[in-house]
Amino acid sequence: MRELSRRDFFKLGRTAGDADEPIVHIASLLVRATETGCEAVRALIGSMPGAELHETGQTGKLAIVLESADSRAIADATTELQQLPGVLTVSIVAHLMESASALEEPHDAESTTVPAT
Fold it and tell me: Rounded to an integer, what distance in angstroms lies between the CA atom of residue 87 and that of residue 94?
């Protein structure tokens, strides 16, 4: 098995020509909050560009997807959510970085897996 440094790992799939291409950060968050906190989260997410709110069907639990060209904006939004009254926890469940052009490419509806090397 080939060993990779952390730097090499994060460069996987990128070529030298990708250096100038914009990167899009997509993060999914899970928020636990009181009823008042959920209302505050809904209001804030409604005013945030690149943010989507998804109801989970469970009282006090909301799922949020954030999209930004800057990872700092993801961190700032997470901090802003944590500071809302009635918000108990904000957990980043996933954070994906993808080239902007790759997000525009058509894809199959089926999931794909990467073969082990």
Answer: 19
Of 80, 79, 48, 82, which is closest to residue 65 (Cα–Cα)? 48
Rounded-to-integer distance, Cα 52 and Cα 63, Å:
8
- Convert the pLDDT of each residue in 85-114 to its tens digit: 999 999 999 998 888 676 666 656 665 555
Residue 44, C-beta contacts closer than 8 angstroms, at least 6 positions apart: 80, 81, 84
Bridge-based pairing of strands 51-55 and 23-33 is unpaired
Q: Residue 88 corresponds to which tokens in the numbers above?
A: 């108990």
Contacts of 54 (CB under 8 A, 6+ apart): 62, 63, 64, 65
For tokens 């944590």, name the residue. Answer: 82
Residue of higher predicted confidence among 18 and 84: 84
Fold of the CATH domain 28-93: Alpha-Beta Plaits (3.30.70)
Q: Would you call 61 helix, strand, or coil by DSSP?
A: strand
